[in-house]
Amino acid sequence: MMQKEIIWRCPSNIALVKYWGKKENQIPCNASLSLTLNHSFTEVSLTLDEKKEKGIELQYFFHEQPNEHFQKRILRYLEQNEGSFDILKDYSITIHSTNSFPHSAGIASSASSFGAIALALLSASEQQDENFYEEASNLARLGSGSACRSMYGPYALWGKLPQVSQSSDEFAIPILDIHPNFHDMQDAILIVDDSVKKVSSSAGHALMKGHPYADARFLQANQHCIEMLNVLAKGEYEQFITIIEQEALALHAMMMTSNQYFLLMKPGTIHAIEKIMEFRKETGTPIAFTLDAGPNVHVLYPGKDKLQVQDFLESELKGSIKEIIYDNAGTGPVKISG
Ligand code: DP6
């Protein structure tokens, strides 16, 4: 039999408005909105072979090594969604996955990985139609919620909002009305700490169940999404900064007040945040921070201020952190072969 190799590259994304809290079947409790990255991606190669046994046959390699943990998670994903991937009936599949960025770097690897896996599996199947990316987004979501937003760049929205007609809880949609001020956003990722996450995303989302502030938080996030759509269309830096910083701190506030509670910021996180705010005040540069569920800091700023900001980060912050990874807004997944 001819071996068919399909290769997809899918970027990670950083949420500007955070997804934190989900219902059954990976349905989010609120809408979220993200910036798609460019250099931080997962590349997945999928090969199909003749099947020897009944049931799903998967061989999984991460950076050329078998990886039991990921193998199990992906097998579970395939079992749960077998009906959506017709190739699983007829073929044994081998997946080779590599990330362009270091592990535990505060870059969502589950977003880029499940994005790339969903794209590769879907493009190998015969069921493709003109809604390919929508379907891939839906299937990526079932692997990891934030993955559904990686299908589009530079900005994507996930979650049903009555004010946005095409929006859905099942897949992300691209945000098309973007002012030139936001065309070339940069994201410098400050690695404050690269140890493994203290709380997995799934455990984190579960903490929103019965959280005393849950309803207020979901409302705030939905409102922030609507405001952010307007901010991105109008090019308003000041509002952009306010929303994303409020979102980052609200996410951590949720973690700090849940039962069990988590304090995921490190002294280096606070130090970086204070320096960023100081620099903004002194120079008027529209630079802002955001955080994921961890201690590392994403610094966002427009391309026009790249040199000045990089100079500031290298001279003022490099010494107190482990590493800086420079990334910027990307345009979404790319099919490399197949
Ligand atoms: C804090 O998408 O990783 O990064 O659906 O359980 O896989 P699962 O969760 P995941 O959660 C991401 C949470 C976040 C915020 C965000 O990306 O919106």
In short:
This protein is an alpha+beta fold. The protein is built from nine helices and 14 strands.
Properties at a glance:
14 strands, 338 residues, eight-stranded mixed sheet, 26% strand, binds ligand DP6, 36% helix, globular, four-stranded antiparallel sheet, alpha+beta
Basic shape: globular
- Mean pLDDT comes to 95
Structural class: alpha+beta
Cα radius of gyration in angstroms: 20 Å
The helix content, as a percent range, equals 25-40%
Strand content: 25-35%
Q: What is the strand tally?
A: 14
Bound molecules: ligand DP6
Structure description:
The protein is of the alpha+beta class and 338 residues long. The protein has helices spanning 68-80, 87-90, 109-124, 132-143, 201-206, 214-234, 237-256, 267-283, 306-317, and strands at residues 4-17, 22-23, 27-28, 32-50, 58-62, 65-66, 91-99, 155-158, 172-174, 185-191, 288-291, 297-302, 323-328, 334-337. Ligand DP6 is lined by residues 15, 18-20, 26, 32, 108, 110, 144-146, 201-202, 205, 251, 292-293.
List the helices and strands and how they pair.
Blueprint: E1 4-17, E2 22-23, E3 27-28, E4 32-50, E5 58-62, E6 65-66, H1 68-80, H2 87-90, E7 91-99, H3 109-124, H4 132-143, E8 155-158, E9 172-174, E10 185-191, H5 201-206, H6 214-234, H7 237-256, H8 267-283, E11 288-291, E12 297-302, H9 306-317, E13 323-328, E14 334-337
Parallel strand pairs: 5-7
Antiparallel strand pairs: 1-4, 1-14, 2-3, 4-7, 4-8, 5-6, 8-9, 10-12, 10-13, 11-12
Helix pairs in contact: 3-4, 6-7
